[in-house]
């Protein structure tokens, strides 16, 4: 049975890390962002979007095998949750997202202005 939001919050509050041992390459997933927002370290297969959120040993542990993931789990200590949250806040704060959208739209407008009519 899936955990509701209050149950998830209680689990995250006690969690030191969460493992994602997917064997297929995935695009960026909200699970990574959810872990970072909760200040939880991530141990994940080094595939797909893993490196977008996990900076080696700063905010999680990429692994290439289950044995590497087990070694990483043994290295997870009592977390300073700010360390895990910081990369997410830098990449996905409201200000950062607004600036990124502004750059995208400015680029579109510039291309349209240069396009022959």
Describe the structure.
With 117 residues, this protein is mainly alpha-helical. The chain has one domain: Glycogen Phosphorylase B (Rossmann fold, 3-Layer(aba) Sandwich). The protein is 56% helix and 11% strand. Helix 3 links the parallel strand 2 (41-45) and strand 3. It is elongated and about 60 Å long. The model has no long low-confidence stretch (mean pLDDT 84).
What's this entry about, in short?
The protein has 117 residues and is mainly alpha-helical. Helix content is 56%, strand content 11%.
Key attributes of the depicted protein:
single chain, 117 residues, mainly alpha, Rossmann fold, 6 helices
The average pLDDT value, as a whole number, equals 84
Coarse structural class: mainly alpha
Tell me the radius of gyration: 18 Å
What is the beta-strand fraction? 5-15%
Helix content: 55-70%
Looking at the structure, the CATH topology is Rossmann fold
| Overall body shape | elongated
Total of DSSP H or I helical runs spanning 4+ residues:
6
Distance separating the two termini? 58 Å
Query: How many structural domains in the coordinates?
Result: 1
Overall CATH class = Alpha Beta
Low-confidence runs: none
The largest sheet, given as strand count, sense and whether it forms a barrel, is: 3 strands, parallel
Order of helices and strands: HEHEHEHHH
What is the count of β-strands?
3
Q: Any guess at the CATH architecture?
A: 3-Layer(aba) Sandwich
For this structure, what is the CATH homologous superfamily? Glycogen Phosphorylase B
Strand order of the largest sheet: 1-2-3
């Amino acid at each position: 049975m899936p955990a509701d939001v209050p149950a998830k919050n209680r689990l995250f509050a006690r969690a030191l890390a969460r493992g994602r041992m997917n064997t297929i390459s995935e695009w960026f997933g909200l699970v990574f962002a959810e872990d970072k927002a909760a200040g939880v370290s991530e141990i994940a297969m080094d595939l797909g979007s893993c490196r977008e959120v996990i900076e080696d040993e700063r905010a999680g542990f990429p692994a290439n095998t289950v044995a590497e993931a087990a070694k990483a789990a043994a290295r997870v200590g009592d977390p300073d949750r700010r360390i895990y949250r910081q990369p997410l806040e830098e990449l996905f704060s409201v200000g950062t997202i607004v600036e990124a959208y502004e750059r995208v739209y400015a680029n579109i407008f510039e291309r349209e202005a240069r396009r022959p009519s």
